[in-house]
Amino acid sequence: MKKIDWNIPVISFIALFLRVFNILGEVMVCDEGLIIAPVFNFFERGILPFRNWHHPPLRYFFLYLSSKFLGEDILAYRFHSIIFGVGSVILLYFLALKIFKSKEIAALSSLFLATDPLHTAFSRLAIEDSQLTFFILLSLLLTLKYSEKRESWLLIPIGFTLGLSIATKWLSLPIYLAVVLYVVYLNWNETFRKIDYLKITNFFICLILLPLSTYLFAFLPWFQRGYTLNEWLNFQLLMARSAGGVSPTDYGHLIGLSHHAFKWFIFPISFSYSNVLEGSIIKSVTGFIHPPLWLLFVPAFIYLLRSEESEKFYFLSASIFLFIFPLILMNRPVYLYSATSFTPFVALITATFFYKLREKNTKYAQIIDILLVIIICYSLFLFPLEAEIPVPYRLYQPLLNIYALFS
Amino acid sequence: MKKKNLNWKDLAVAIVALLISLSFVFSAYITGKRNATLSKASLKSKKIKIENGFEFLNEMEEKNIKGGSLLLLDESLHTDIPTFTPTLDPQENIKNLREIYNPKKITPNEENFIYLAIIENRIKNIYLVVPSKKWEKVKKELLLPFLKPTKNSLVGTFYDGTPITISPSNSPVLPKRASIILLNESSFPQGEKYIKTWTEKGKLHFDLIFLLQKEEGI
Fold first, then answer.
1. Contact B14 A198 (CB under 8 A)
2. What CATH number is associated with residue B127?
3. What pTM was computed for the model?
4. Chain A residues touching B9 at Cβ < 8 A
5. Least CB-packed of A16, A57, A342, B20 within 10 Å?
6. Structural domain contains residue B217
7. Residue A128: pLDDT band with limits 50, 70, 90
8. In terms of residue numbers, what domain contains B88?
9. Mutation site, A54, A190, A225, A278, interface B, largest B CB count within 10 A
10. Among candidate residues A93, A117, A123, the one with its CA nearest the CA of residue A6
11. Domain limits of chain A?
12. What span, in angstroms and rounded, lies between the C-alpha atoms of B46 and A339?
């Protein structure tokens, strides 16, 4: 009989608890309102939301479904985010298991993600970043499964998932590129050098046509306005122009922040909607970068790049590089939302680093264990702020002051 | 030479993926086509005289015009959107925000009737041509956040992503085919002459023309 892996239910439960606890008590933030308000309008008449029309519309689909079936209340609005958030934790477990073949690494990285202050915060809001993270992880996991089995039917779910992730946010385009390049690399000798027309056609349909048509399908309600396919193509250009033209001042008055992605790896940054200095109760602090993990990410990644030699790890590294470099080099402001989808990579790399370090230096094992406990405790310490559980302000004041300094 | 066997599995995958892709593309194509209904059968007259924006909306509804390209000869877009004042109650904000998108909740007037035509899906894109004498003034007034100036026009989108092109009458940017032309004769008295010239030169094809002859309150 197959032994049950208790890691998954236990970590999933922790993830679910942190994403559901006090969910009804957490005040809705303005960005949620901007996504929730136009949902029915989009599905019934195809009108995209004002100002935010340049985002791909898949983010409205799951919100629409949960509002339609669960009714219109805060839990229904946030339901899909919670499910995608917990789902991402589970997917990361399997992804780590596939790449490093270690249950310890899988458990630690998914525990990091389950308790991560940024991922937890955005999985509790009706904002699409948790959904995006889920589809990115799913496409990577399916690609790794394909690399093992080379079964061509797997290309269909890969293509479909890639389409879903791009239709959620363009941020996932580099992941798309990484997957396509990896699949081409895997089949280079067998298919591309020998020019196997059927297989090449297969790749073209599954990895180009299918993601593109899935992306197009997300616009289906928009076509109710009478647009043609040609107008849809022109609309993509308008979207790109508008999204690329966002300047720090466009939303500055709302959130008061403009981040550059490189800062995530250096400074403790938080993302808040209202003043944290109000009385003794802290309100609407939404997300935090977990400084120990993010600070450690770059050295840990370099360390692993030098020591790990598996093909799967190279694929993961390529995905990380392709994902983060455009964000770092981008001229437009990149807000902390976007860091949510990168959180699983941070959790995975740092967890692996700790595990390898512990394995290599057994005499420091206890110190590393204490460090890991501190990291998890730090995440849990921040949790009341994400969930808006009333806490004495003085307890958090020094920490919040540090965050405020860099945010 | 060894003959290569056909890999049925690959073929089946390719066919299934292709069918899924095509069904997605066709459903989008058909949805767009079905909702662009300038029902020509009901167009008894190509030229319709109207007195105000309210009549324009009524005519559009009566003729079941949907998804049209509008060529507007005027000096204003008539796209005022209802104001929204955020409150401290997010649920209340959602309710109020929804009313901005709800044509049934908005009273039509001279300033917003094109906006209503947009959110009722009567119009899917707008080409505004303004009299060249008023171009500089209009250019300054209409520089919406998402409109960018090009050499001789303003190009961009309305707040909801509806494409808009604004140009002066001496170098107009015209749609390949305008479903509807709306000419405001009080602000563009030479409009009909221009339309005639553009049509004769083959620059403009259209289905229906509305002549707004008196611009008074509704």
1. yes
2. 3.40.50
3. 0.91
4. 151-153
5. A16
6. no
7. very high
8. 39-212
9. A225
10. A93
11. 7-44+51-224+255-406
12. 55
